[in-house]
Amino acid sequence: MKRSIILFLLTFSVTSGVVGTFYYLKHQHDQSAATKPAPVADAEQNAQKTTAQEEATDETTPSTSDAGKQAATSATEPSAPVSDLPPVFPDEDLLTSTDEKPADEKPTEETPATDSAEEEVTLPEGVKPNNEAHKTALVVVEKLKTDDPATALQKMVDKQQVSPQAAAVITDWLKENQPADVQEIGDIRNHADGTKTYRYRVTTANGENDLLLDILTDKAGQNPFIATAATTPSDKTMLLASSDSMTVAEGFIQAVREGDMSKARSMVNNKTVSAATLAGLCMIFEEGTFVLSSKTPIRNTVLNPRAAMYLVYVVPSDNPDAPKVEANHIAMSLTRLDESWQITGVGTDRLLDIYLTGAQKEGGRYFPIVKNPKGGESLALYFDFDDANLTPRSERQLQIVADILRESKGKLDIAGHTDDLGTEEYNLKLSERRAESVRQVLIKFGVAPEQITTKGLGKNEPRQLLSETDDEDQMDFKRGENRRAEIYLDFES
What we know:
The chain folds into three domains: about 50-235, no CATH class; about 245-350, Nuclear Transport Factor 2, Chain: A; about 365-490, CATH 3.30.1330.60. The longest helix has about 35 residues, at about 1-35. The chain has helices at about 1-35, 50-55, 65-75, 130-145, 150-160, 165-175, 245-255, 260-265, 275-285, 350-360, 390-405, 425-445, 470-480; strands at about 180-190, 195-205, 210-215, 225-235, 290, 300-305, 305-315, 330-335, 340-345, 365-370, 375-380, 410-415, 450-455, 485-490. By secondary structure, the chain is α+β, with helices and mostly antiparallel strands. Helix 9 (about 275-285) packs antiparallel against helix 11 and helix 11 packs across helix 12. Strands 1, 2, 3, 4, 5, 6, 7, 8 and 9 form a nine-stranded mixed beta sheet that branches. The chain has a five-stranded mixed beta sheet with strand order 10-11-14-12-13.
């Protein structure tokens, strides 16, 4: 009996303590909530915002889960013309977030579910979104193709899936354009809070300007919200003064893909990015060996108000859906000068080496850019045995070189070479004919004759030295590399 009483008293004491602790903590929490000041934006964090974007966001900094809701309810239509609004990213000019929403938290009435934006839309057959942001972009375009896009867009604004600023730009764009397709451009992670922004280009079917959509998601890539929109020329290489760093990166890649050396050079610092590097990139894409990855081809790695770095993923053209792990990349660094961005560094990873391997499998020898013994870089063009005629591939390479020379005061020093077979006198004349063949093609492409000098070196400066241990195949390969004309790429002198 005493034992039962003791147990009862112990149980009663524990229960009373738990209940008392609960009410004490609750009282403390209520007091803290009552006195806690409302969050305000940090002036330094948001100093990068443009005037138009400051008008399109609340004075408070939205949390990740509430970014769409607060921007939608507090934004006002920008005073600047919508066509002048620069495309933006969070770290450069856009939204910042301080709070995070757990990845597994379910949408509530205050945070509309993504499905509500898609309930009346069926994506085209065969179209498979890569992620929630991509799905949102596809849904928006399908809504813009309906008979009443204005009403559909307003519903998305009401559901807080599109900011009023973005809606205003989209509405204005629709007055002169009809949406055709959605292209992924790239993404950027806001390392401060883990939020992510994805950029998509909505191409026009009948106009001159495309539409850029920047879609903000939370840390887990959920709750996509179209934060900003902007118009941009359909010609990706035609940059506006307000173009941000990713737009410049996209334009540069388009320029080298088109082999447009003039535009490519206008986007880079010519003191830190050599013309030879640009020529090599143009040659790679001209041959069609590589294409841009279809899934998020441009990825940001560093971004602040004055510097940015991007990786541009390319994949073999015969396997365009290759995963990122099998892709190679072009690395770019950019610096902001005054109000515009300039590319100050370009790296090609293993692209040139891979290109070499593929070109050699097709027959013949091909090295787009080689190191010159004098320092710097040279373009090497190869010839068949006892032949001074250029191949169609070599002529395409020379077209790219000619494009550079026509716009510069530089000069080319062309040296012809041969293998070790034959007399020295015969090889000297053959090497001179090879150098002259290159000269004539460049003149045909518009290069001034006074910009070109030639010389024949015969068999005196081989790229590959023969060895007594070489078998017949090895000797044939080395002799093939020695039958060449080298162009010393000095574009700036």
